[in-house]
Amino acid sequence: MLTAPTDLRTLLDAAQGRTVLILGDLMLDHFVIGRVERISPEAPVPVVQFDHESYRLGGAANVAHNVAALGGRVEIAGLVGNDAEGARLVGELREAGIGTAAVLADAGRCTTRKLRVVTTRNQQVARIDYECDTPAEGALEAELVKKIGESAAHADVILISDYQKGAVTRATAQAAIAAASDRGIPSLVDPKVPHIDYYAGASLVTPNHHEAEAVTLMRIRTAEEARAAAQRFRARAMCDAVLVTRGEHGMWLLGVEGEFDLPAEAREVSDVTGAGDTVIAAMALGLAGRGSLRNAARLSNRAAGLAVARFGAVAITYDELIAALPIELNQSSL
């Protein structure tokens, strides 16, 4: 029998090369960056003088990018439009080493793109969303379910990244969770409240505290309130474990190993965009490395602390995370 890694460095190393299958909503983050030196005479808005633009992987694609950057192998299942943005997104995924055999192009939708106008000082001026959030159905949904089944055959963990943009339906979510159950591997979900009934049977669901409050109708301000909400959330979602992310207050983990209050790891907060993506990516990789729920959560907590110190959705790399991990641990406390 393999022994579970008991320190975070060993755990991260054990996870190298493990495969994570991700089902989720793929997005392209588009940044238009410029200088602001005056207000428009036409309306009380800043005039942004264009300097440059850039693209990043967003949504479930950012989760995949984080897993790959941390040393995992990734296959991703989802939808893009039959458009230039979809081609760019798929190209960016492949460039990051992410498998795209289960990405379907749908001529009936546009690729989800978030266009942010940002100053050179990282101040966001405006955001424009291009999206079609119609749920996949009929032949498209059936093909996505088929692709999930095919890709699950080689996975060590299956992860659902739900942004409520159409790829995660009851059928696709249950196909992913069932595939994980059949193979005896963990299934993780980054949820959306309206889809709470889709996640029954998942190994772990990771709501932020706003989502946990909405599902449980409970206020979360203290660790004790997080504990009570996690218990009610688990019963409502019919999952095995719950990780409530609480921003600057850290995380609360409720699982078969017990309940744990994990303090926040961030030393500096620049931007929380994509932090939840980093959390579930590191969590999935930690479990793929056969770590305990608690140690996988501790790994993800440290990774999230690095992510929020940078602007926009970012992929934390293996080297960055390994440098931020303690060299020695008191293993008796794990």
Comma- or semicolon-separated keywords:
single chain; 334 residues; alpha/beta; UDP-N-acetylmuramoyl-L-alanine:D-glutamate ligase; 9-stranded mixed beta sheet; 4-stranded mixed beta sheet; 10 helices; 35% helix; disordered C terminus
Report on this structure.
The chain is α/β, with parallel strands linked by helices and 334 residues long. The protein has a single domain, classed as 3-Layer(aba) Sandwich (UDP-N-acetylmuramoyl-L-alanine:D-glutamate ligase), CATH 3.40.1190.20. It contains ten helices and 13 strands. Strands 5-4-1-8-9-10-11-12-13 form a nine-stranded mixed β-sheet, with helices on both faces. A four-stranded mixed β-sheet has the order 3-2-6-7. It is globular, with a radius of gyration of 20 Å. The model is unreliable at 328-334 (pLDDT under 50).
Q: How does the SSE layout of this entry go?
A:
Elements: H1 8-14, E1 19-24, E2 26-39, E3 46-59, H2 60-69, E4 73-81, H3 84-95, E5 99-106, E6 112-119, E7 124-130, H4 138-152, E8 157-161, H5 170-183, E9 187-190, E10 204-205, H6 209-216, H7 223-237, E11 241-245, E12 251-255, E13 258-262, H8 275-288, H9 293-307, H10 318-324
Parallel strand pairs: 1-4, 1-8, 2-6, 4-5, 8-9, 9-10, 10-11
Antiparallel strand pairs: 2-3, 6-7, 11-12, 12-13
Mean pLDDT: 91
Coarse shape: globular
Distance between the termini: 20 Å
Q: CATH topology, which one?
A: UDP-N-acetylmuramoyl-L-alanine:D-glutamate ligase
CATH homologous superfamily designation: Ribokinase
**Over the alpha carbons, how many angstroms does the gyration radius reach?**
20 Å
Q: How do the strands of the widest beta sheet line up side by side? A: 5-4-1-8-9-10-11-12-13
Number of strands: 13
